[in-house]
Write a structure and sequence with these properties.
The complex is a heterodimer of chains A (120) and B (117). Chain A is an all-beta fold and 120 residues long. Chain A is built from no helices and eleven strands. The radius of gyration of chain A is 14 Å and the shape is elongated. The N and C termini of chain A lie far apart (36 Å). Chain B is an all-beta fold. The chains are: A mainly beta (120), B mainly beta (117). At the A-B interface, β4, β5, β9 and β10 of A face β10 and β11 of B.
C-alpha cells in the first residue's frame, strides 16, 4: 500500500530555531506539493515541484521558507528562522500531475499524514 | 485567481439521513477538476470524490454523489444514508489543468459535519 510519508509527525521548537520537514512521495509520482493548514487561513498551497523542478512557490514566505527536492524520493521544507505564526500542520502530497490515458485517477493528489509544528 | 467558497461552517444530521454540503467556486478557466476531501480528527486528508469539469455526468462513489452545475459554478456533495464514521471536516477543492500538467489545489474553508446517533 503506497503512501506519502512525512517526518517528523510533531515538532515543537523555540522561536528563531531552524525547522526542516521531510516528505517521501509515492514511488513513481513526479509532482510534489506542500500545503499548510491553520485555523485562520485554512489549507493553503505553499509550493510544488514537477520532476524535481520548482514550478510555483508564490504561496511561500520567501524570506524564511525554502523548499527543495534533493532527489526524486525526498522533498524538504525548511523554515529559518521560525516564528510563532508558523505554527500549523504542514502537508505534503504527491501525484502524477497530469492525466494519463487509461488512468482515471492519475491527476489525484495523495496526502501524507502531516507535520504538526508548534513554535513557542 | 481561483476561489472556493463553502458557506456552511457546520452541519449536524441524524444517522441514516441524507445531507448536502454546498460549494461554489469562481474561475475564468475552462480546464479544471473539482474534489471533495474528508478530514477526520486524525487529520489525514482523504479523497471522497472527484469531478472533471468537461464531464456533464455527475460523479458518484457509493453513498457519495455530487451535483455539478458548471454554469452556476456550483459543486455540492450529497451523502446518503449517513454514518457515524462520516463525521469529519469536508473540504471542497479546485484544481486547474493545462498542457503542462496540474496545478496545486485551492481549498474552501471547510464544513464540519457531525452525524448524530
Amino acid at each position: 500500500d503506497a503512501r506519502v510519508t512525512q517526518t517528523p509527525r510533531h515538532k515543537v521548537t523555540e522561536m528563531g530555531q531552524e525547522v526542516t520537514m521531510r516528505c517521501q512521495p509515492i514511488l513513481g509520482h513526479n509532482t510534489v506539493f506542500w500545503y499548510r493548514q491553520t485555523m485562520m487561513q485554512g489549507l493553503e498551497l505553499l509550493a510544488y515541484f514537477r520532476n524535481r523542478a520548482p514550478l510555483d512557490d508564490s504561496g511561500m514566505p520567501k524570506d524564511r521558507f525554502s523548499a527543495e527536492m534533493p532527489d526524486a524520493t525526498l522533498a524538504t521544507l525548511k523554515i529559518q528562522p521560525s516564528e510563532p505564526r508558523d505554527s500549523a500542520v504542514y502537508f505534503c502530497a504527491s501525484g502524477f500531475g497530469q492525466p494519463f490515458p487509461g488512468k482515471e485517477n492519475s491527476y489525484e493528489q495523495y496526502f501524507g499524514p502531516g507535520t504538526r509544528l508548534t513554535v513557542t | 485567481a481561483q476561489t472556493v467558497t463553502q458557506s456552511q461552517p457546520e452541519m449536524s444530521v441524524q444517522e441514516a439521513e441524507t445531507v448536502t454540503l454546498s460549494c461554489t467556486y469562481d474561475t475564468s478557466e475552462s480546464n479544471y477538476y473539482l474534489f471533495w476531501y474528508k478530514q477526520p480528527p486524525s487529520r489525514q486528508m482523504i479523497l471522497v470524490i472527484r469531478q472533471e469539469a468537461y464531464k456533464q455526468q455527475n460523479a458518484t462513489e457509493n453513498r457519495f454523489s455530487v451535483n455539478f452545475q458548471k454554469a452556476a459554478k456550483s459543486f455540492s456533495l450529497k451523502i446518503s444514508d449517513s454514518q457515524l464514521g462520516d463525521t469529519a471536516m469536508y473540504f471542497c477543492a479546485f484544481m486547474l489543468y493545462s498542457g503542462g500538467g496540474a496545478d496545486g489545489l485551492t481549498f474552501g474553508k471547510g464544513t464540519h459535519l457531525i452525524i448524530q446517533p
